[in-house]
Amino acid sequence: MIFKKRKEVNGSERPGLVVVNKPSSVISEQFRTIRTNIQFSMIDEAIRTMVVTSAGPGAGKSTVAANLASTFASEDKRVLLVDADLRKPTVHKTFKVRNSDGLTLLLTDKQAHVEDVVYRTHTEGLYILTSGAIPPNPAELLSSKRMEELKREMLDYFDMIIFDTPPVLAVTDAQVLASKTDGVLIVIPKGQASKEEMHKAKDLLDKVKANILGAVLNRVEKSDDNYYYYYGDK
Ligand SMILES: Nc1ncnc2c1ncn2[C@@H]1O[C@H](COP(=O)(O)OP(=O)(O)OP(=O)(O)O)[C@@H](O)[C@H]1O
Ligand SMILES: [Mg+2]
């Protein structure tokens, strides 16, 4: 069995990982609903690679990506959460691991292999790939042929790959990855994102023919019935 003897998450994960820390909470239930909605949107074609992004910064992309990856992972489903935010990576912080090697090593060193840098987490079926060293040219690396090869290699090991990315309006990285993956989930921070920004982000994703699966409304007040809402467009 791969990854068993390799890198393993040692400490406990950060509190932001609600679905792991509080599996029976309302939020965890909502992530299960989002999972179900995504599964429903992939009846004809299984979605195995997915980008989580947003229009602007601080929307909750990394939080949603990590919780969703945990929700999809199970005994018989292997999920890899990839930190493809090569500008402001956080996956290593969420899972409290070293970020010396990661995606950028795989992208720049052909001798490096997926099984050498992927961490196995405490959650059954959940694996993580941290960003690695921050490169000067993230968009270039993410659009490289090597990235394509790497994605295929990852799909040999994992049933699903979830990419955490930078905001769409800031840099082209998410657009680049969206064009290479089966679907995109947009995180919208309630009351913080303007309609205009959302339209701009959607236009940019449409331009690369991204398959927008839907949007998750984040930062919904506790007084509301739900903390997270999912809007599918399928
Ligand atoms: N629903 C929520 N309720 C409370 N805090 C949240 C919620 N979602 C995210 N946060 C917090 O807001 C901060 C930003 O969230 P996160 O890092 O997930 O956003 P991001 O979109 O990935 O940001 P960036 O654009 O910098 O990558 C974090 O400290 C996170 O813990
Ligand atoms: Mg982030």
List strands and helices in order, with pairings.
Layout: H1 18-21, H2 26-40, E1 49-53, H3 61-72, E2 79-83, H4 91-94, H5 103-108, H6 114-117, E3 119-120, E4 126-129, H7 138-142, H8 145-157, E5 160-164, H9 173-178, E6 183-189, H10 195-207, E7 212-218, E8 229-232
Parallel strand pairs: 1-5, 1-6, 2-4, 2-5, 6-7
Antiparallel strand pairs: 3-4, 7-8
Bound molecules: adenosine-5'-triphosphate (ATP) and magnesium ion.
Residues 16, 54, 57-63, 85, 88, 90, 167, 218-219, 227 line the site of adenosine-5'-triphosphate.
Structure at a glance:
The protein is of the alpha/beta class. The chain has helices at residues 18-21, 26-40, 61-72, 91-94, 103-108, 114-117, 138-142, 145-157, 173-178, 195-207, and strands spanning 49-53, 79-83, 119-120, 126-129, 160-164, 183-189, 212-218, 229-232. The chain has a single domain, classed as Rossmann fold, CATH 3.40.50.300.
Largest sheet: 8 strands, mixed
Gap from first CA to last CA: 37 Å
Specify the CATH architecture: 3-Layer(aba) Sandwich
Q: By helix and strand content, what is the structural category?
A: alpha/beta
Give the proportion of residues in helices: 25-40%
Mean pLDDT: 90
Bound molecules: adenosine-5'-triphosphate, magnesium ion
Q: If strands are numbered along the chain, what order do they take across the biggest sheet?
A: 3-4-2-5-1-6-7-8
What pattern of helices and strands is seen along the backbone?
A: HHEHEHHHEEHHEHEHEE
Number of domains: 1
Shape assignment: globular
- Percentage beta strand: 15-25%
Total of helices? 10
CATH homologous superfamily descriptor: P-loop containing nucleotide triphosphate hydrolases
Question: Low-confidence runs (pLDDT<50, min 5 residues)?
Answer: none
State the CATH class: Alpha Beta
Estimated radius of gyration: 16 Å
